[in-house]
Design brief:
This protein is α/β, with parallel strands linked by helices and 458 residues long. The chain folds into three domains: 57 residues, Archaeosine Trna-guanine Transglycosylase, Chain: A, domain 4, CATH 2.30.130; 114 residues, Sugar-phosphate isomerase, RpiB/LacA/LacB (Ribose 5-phosphate Isomerase B, Chain: A, 3-Layer(aba) Sandwich), CATH 3.40.1400; 222 residues, no CATH class. It is built from 13 helices and 21 strands. The strands form six sheets. The protein has a seven-stranded parallel beta sheet, sandwiched between helices. The chain has a four-stranded parallel beta sheet with strand order 11-10-12-13, sandwiched between helices. A three-stranded antiparallel beta sheet has the order 4-5-7. A hairpin with a 5-residue loop joins strand 1 and strand 2. Helix 1 crosses helix 4 and helix 2 crosses helix 10. It starts with a strand and ends in a 14-residue tail after the last helix.
């Protein structure tokens, strides 16, 4: 990490690592440190002018549970006329921004079959290790996530592949999945056939014939659902990429579109900002439960609620969970919070929805896709090759990482540091992705899912 020189208020020149914090005045032990207008922690020892402010002298002030009061901020903005995007209109009225064939296993035992079918057909295999030996909530979560993916409109056709003896067998899975279009969704139970590959290829040919009947047409952007995610954050995430995403979110929701913010632990310390933007008291109460239930999940496993910034986050200059959270929630801009969703629950309302789930990158991306998000805007200060089931747009927070990892990253927000206004170019780029321009993860063939797990495995 390079060093930059900062001039303090007392004309004392100090060196600090890029993205890191340095004291421009003396700070006393016990004082709050303010960033983004909110406290990001308390000073644990006196800090002198020019001294680095980081994990050795700044500690979290988060507590297990808080008492919350609904104080609506009233920041809703006037609606905007929606622009047009080009999408595939499905028979049920949904739109897709891709027209792919997905191959989804009900159980990890048939992952190899799914991968072989994808290699032979050009389809996309979304493999995972679950679907059997799970109990209670984990089993249901797996079924709900897979159901959300099967019903995702970016897939013109879906082949669901089962083994036959798993807990999540096709008969049981269909009870959760519900009614589907038999031309769009087909099922293969591998134990029923001498040659499951031949049977799978026959079904995939039928699905491709159905999907090929769809063509792009103009629809308003108000029908677009966008997921919001950050990973490998650094000290610039809350200054460049996340606010840029937030301004896109505001523009999209003012045009009647929907955005979804997840990573519940990365709301801790910034949750009141979201709570005060809730559309009504019912949504506020759901948000309170979302936060407290996830804190209870931490403590039930003997973990502290404030253990979040990863080694990469800390190397990039993020010290406390409050600092990470205050940067993270900026991806939601100033949009009104209209709904709170659970695992596998589909986005139902325009505006900003909050989605249950952890901050783990692959799990969060999977959750967003399963909720129906057509694409995911993913900010990163450290760089990541990750790609999910839907187009995953990687937005660099700084120029250096974008130059270094252009094979991974799609858009550079680093110019904001130099005063560039990137709002229009970013908005137009997202429209291009919606219209079919592939992301780097799509070009690289990087597509993966991971399903949240909490309980016992048999």
């Amino acid at each position: 990490m390079s060093l930059i020189k900062i001039q303090s208020s007392d004309n004392v020149a100090v060196d600090t690592e890029t993205g890191h914090k340095v004291a421009l005045k003396a700070i006393s032990c016990g004082d709050n440190v303010i960033k983004y207008g909110y406290p990001i922690g308390r000073v644990s020892q006196d800090i002198s002018i020019g001294e680095a402010v980081h994990t050795h002298n700044l500690k979290t002030a988060l507590r297990l549970r808080e008492e919350y009061v609904y104080s609506p901020s009233g920041e809703a903005e006037e609606p905007l006329e929606p622009v047009k995007i080009s999408a595939f209109v499905r028979e049920n009225g949904d739109i897709g921004i891709r027209n792919e064939i997905w191959i989804i296993p009900t159980v990890g035992c048939v992952n190899g079959v799914c991968k072989r079918l994808a290699e032979l057909s050009g389809g996309v295999a979304l493999t995972h290790p679950y679907g059997c030996s799970q109990l209670g909530g984990d089993h249901l979560t797996t079924q709900r996530i897979i159901s959300g993916l099967v019903n995702h409109p970016n897939a013109g056709g879906v082949l669901v592949v089962g083994l036959g003896c798993e807990n999540n067998n096709l008969t049981e899975f269909k009870k959760i999945l519900g009614e589907v279009n038999p031309r769009r969704v087909k099922f293969l139970n591998c134990q029923d056939f001498d040659d499951e590959i031949s049977e799978g290829m026959r079904l995939l040919a039928e699905l491709k014939g159905y999907a090929d009947g769809f063509k792009r047409s103009e629809v308003p952007i108000s029908r677009l659902r966008v997921g919001l995610k950050c990973g490998g954050s650094d000290g610039y995430s809350g200054i460049t990429a996340n606010p840029l995403i937030g301004r896109f979110c505001d523009r999209l929701t003012r045009m009647g579109g929907a955005a979804v913010l997840t990573e519940v632990p990365e709301m801790f310390g910034a949750e009141t900002i979201l709570m005060n933007r809730c559309a009504d008291r019912e949504t506020f109460e759901k948000t309170v439960n979302l936060i407290n239930n996830f804190k209870d999940y931490f403590t039930a496993h003997g973990q502290t609620v404030y253990e979040n910034p990863s080694p990469g986050n800390r190397t990039g200059g993020i010290t406390t969970l409050e600092e990470k959270s205050l940067g993270c929630v900026q991806k939601g801009g100033r949009a009104t919070v209209t709904d709170v969703l659970d695992f596998g629950e589909k986005v139902k309302k325009s505006g900003l929805s909050l989605l249950n789930g952890p901050g783990n990158d692959i799990v969060a991306v999977t959750n967003l896709a399963a909720s129906g998000c057509h694409m995911i805007l993913f900010s990163t200060g450290r760089g990541t090759p990750l790609g999910g089931p839907v187009p995953t747009v990687k937005i660099a927070t700084n120029n250096a990482i974008f130059r270094k990892k252009q094979g991974w990253l799609d858009f550079n927000a680093g110019g904001i540091i130099d005063g560039e206004n990137l709002d229009d170019s970013f908005f137009n780029y997202i429209i291009n992705v919606a219209n079919g321009e592939p992301t780097k993860s799509e070009i690289n063939g990087f597509r993966e899912i991971a399903i949240f797990k909490d309980g016992v495995t048999l």
